[in-house]
Design goal:
mainly alpha; 33 helices
Length: about 650
């Protein structure tokens, strides 16, 4: 009995050596899952493999949009990035480099930043992909492309930026006083390190903010809020609110208002005192921030108290921006119960104030994104023909968000009609630019992520997705600053079922679906539709073309008439000449017959029958002959036979 424990003890070490590697492997796999690396890699593989982007849609928009309109040009570049989000497919840009080079200044900033959306999640090769555009030591390229590249780097590493933290911090310090590079770097830091509460980065961004540069300060304020996301840090809120009172730049105040709201993400009732403080501010921008504080603090909670505050402000505040923000906040609060949102904002959608109508459209789009809700589409349909351009823009964007991943591709479906509406708006030369911008971006949203993603603010289990809610909140601020539109990519969720084995690898597996294949079908390609439309549409003709054709026809008719007149004149001349020739021949023949009669070679009777002159007696002599001559001349003048008759008689 005493030896058995010893034997057991002697046998214990070998199994320990076998278990330890397995435990370390399991620990490593657990780290991959919790850090998000596993899900990012799998989603990237799915999006690259299943990319179904239809480049003909982009080509059609490029041809239809006004080439001189820089806003439409920028919108197409942004739509391209949304359509290829996470797919790493940028062939359209490479095939249209000359067209892309028209982007200048901030349009170049946005165009470069779109590379981050296209390659989002491609963290291993991010620096090499963006190397041509990133700031280089001793080399000064365009500050707009450098700033856009730093923003793109942040988007690629969204919410997983620890690997590039040092790089972005050095870039911010090396930017000097270049506010464009500072702007891009600050946004990159904010989006990649959101919720990290990194004090060093916070202090560095605060230094940029206190330089009081409008462009760089706005991005720095926004990035400070992203860093302190959900922290409710009294120090950060006090500093940001204090500087909002001191600065005179509206852009900085707006950035601080959103930054303060981000600090209260998910805090619910804990945010009430701050909301009350901001609502009593005289500056409408800070009251605007109060509405977004409610939106972030009560997102996807369905709180009745939050809804009451939003509805009260939506109908009582004197600022249109605040009222619009209040209605948009309703969409965030009801994100977990999308069926309620259309009923809550139904009356607001009929408001006399266009900002409230825009807000109601956006609220429905945010809350009902990807649901295909009939109630939401019925509420949005009247706003598609609203007399105000930006209301139509909001309705188009919201409709695309609601119809994302809809599989009803029938000719009479809501999705097909919406696609046709988008094509008409983009191709209409008389449409307002703001509405056309919304239609182009809405086209990108409808086919986002290679037609494999949807917008989801909550998971399938009902939990809030922090990056998605933050991304949609900042996306709604593209009203003031178009580069913020790219934040919507944070809300994209791949629509895929990915199965893994114990080694976190995808096995070869199949599953049976009770739904028909049409329930998951991709939209049909546009190439065939384009040919059919082209064969039925009449060719457009300009007024100058019709006028020129009319002139040519008149000239041709005039020439034909002149030719006919000349031909008739020639025929008349030939007739008269022939008649003269016949008369001359006849007169010559009559003269010859008369001469023969005088000589006595022709009898009087025969002469009379030939010439039509009455015969006289034979005994008349010379005088009679002379009289006959005179008489014949008179008779010829009176009624000489025609040449044809005379020739016939002679024969």
């Amino acid at each position: 009995r005493r030896r058995r424990p010893a034997a057991a003890a002697a046998a214990a070490p070998p199994p320990a050596e076998v278990v330890e590697p397995a435990a370390s492997k399991a620990h490593a796999n657990l780290q991959l899952i919790l850090s998000g690396e596993a899900s990012i890699g799998l989603s990237l593989e799915f999006l690259v493999r299943s990319n179904k982007t239809d480049t003909l849609i982009l080509t059609g928009m490029k041809k239809a949009a006004d080439q001189r309109n820089s806003l439409c040009h920028s919108a197409i570049v942004l739509a391209h990035s949304l359509m290829n989000a996470g797919t790493t497919a940028d062939s359209f840009l490479r095939d249209n480099l000359e067209w892309l080079s028209r982007a200048t200044n901030w349009a170049k900033f946005s165009a470069t930043a779109t590379l981050g959306v296209i390659h989002r999640g491609h963290v291993k090769q991010a620096l090499s992909l963006l190397a041509p555009y990133l700031p280089q030591a001793g080399m000064s390229a365009s500050p707009y492309s450098e700033g856009g590249a730093l923003f793109a780097l942040g988007i690629i590493h969204a919410n997983h930026g620890h690997s590039i933290r040092a790089y972005l911090l050095d870039a911010l310090r090396s930017a000097g006083t270049n506010e464009v590079v500072q702007h891009g770097c600050a946004l990159g830091i904010g989006i990649s390190m959101m919720g990290s509460e990194d004090e060093d980065l916070y202090e560095e961004l605060k230094g940029v903010l206190f330089n009081d540069s409008a462009v760089a300060g706005e991005a720095a304020a926004l990035a400070m809020g992203l860093l302190m996301l959900g922290s409710a840090s009294p120090k950060a809120i006090e500093e940001m609110l204090g500087y909002a009172h001191d600065t005179a730049h509206e852009k900085i105040i707006r950035g601080l208002a959103i930054g303060i709201a981000l600090c209260m993400y998910g805090r619910e009732e804990e945010a009430d005192p701050l909301v009350t403080t901001l609502l009593h501010e005289q500056d409408p921008i800070l009251r605007y921030g109060a509405m977004y504080t409610i939106a972030f603090a009560f997102a996807a909670t369905g709180s009745n108290a939050a809804l009451r505050k939003c509805l009260h402000v939506a109908v009582s505040d004197v600022s249109d921006d605040v009222r619009r923000a209040a209605v948009i906040a309703i969409g965030f609060v009801l994100a977990n119960t999308p069926a309620q949102c259309p009923r809550v904002v139904k009356l607001l959608a009929e408001s006399y104030n266009p900002h409230v109508r825009y807000g109601s459209a956006f609220a429905v789009g945010i809350s009902c994104a990807g649901s295909g809700s009939k109630e939401a589409l019925e509420l949005l349909t009247p706003m598609l023909s609203d007399p105000v351009d930006y209301v139509r823009q909001g309705a188009l964007l919201a409709s695309s968000m609601v119809l994302m991943q809809s599989a009803d591709h029938k000719a009479d479906s809501k999705l097909s009609k919406h696609r046709e509406d988008l094509r008409k708006v983009v191709g209409d030369k008389h449409e307002d630019t703001m509405t056309k911008f919304g239609a182009i971006v809405a086209t990108g949203l409808l086919d986002a992520g290679g037609r494999n993603v949807t917008i989801g603010l909550t998971s399938r289990t009902g939990n809030k997705i922090m990056p998605a809610i933050v991304g949609m909140g900042i996306f709604s601020h593209f009203w003031f600053w178009h580069p913020l539109l790219l934040f919507v990519s944070l809300a994209f969720t791949p629509t895929a079922a990915i199965g893994l084995n114990a080694d976190l690898r995808m096995p070869q597996w199949r599953f049976k679906s009770g739904a028909p294949p049409s329930a998951f079908a991709y939209p049909p390609p546009t190439s065939n539709e384009k040919k059919e439309v082209a064969s039925t549409v009449a060719t457009a003709s300009l007024s100058t073309t019709a006028k020129a054709a009319k002139i040519d026809k008149a000239k041709k008719a005039e020439a034909e008439a002149a030719e006919k007149a000349k031909a008739a004149e020639r025929a008349e001349e030939e007739r008269v000449a022939k008649e003269k020739a016949d008369l001359a021949a006849r007169d010559a023949m009559l003269a010859k017959l008369t001469e023969l009669h005088k000589r006595g070679s022709l009898s009087g009777v025969l002469h009379a029958s030939l010439t039509g002159v009455a015969a006289k007696s034979e005994g008349g002599g010379a005088a009679d002959a002379g009289d006959a001559m005179d008489t014949s001349a008179d008779a010829g003048a009176a009624g000489k036979p025609s040449l044809e008759a005379l020739v016939g008689e002679v024969r």
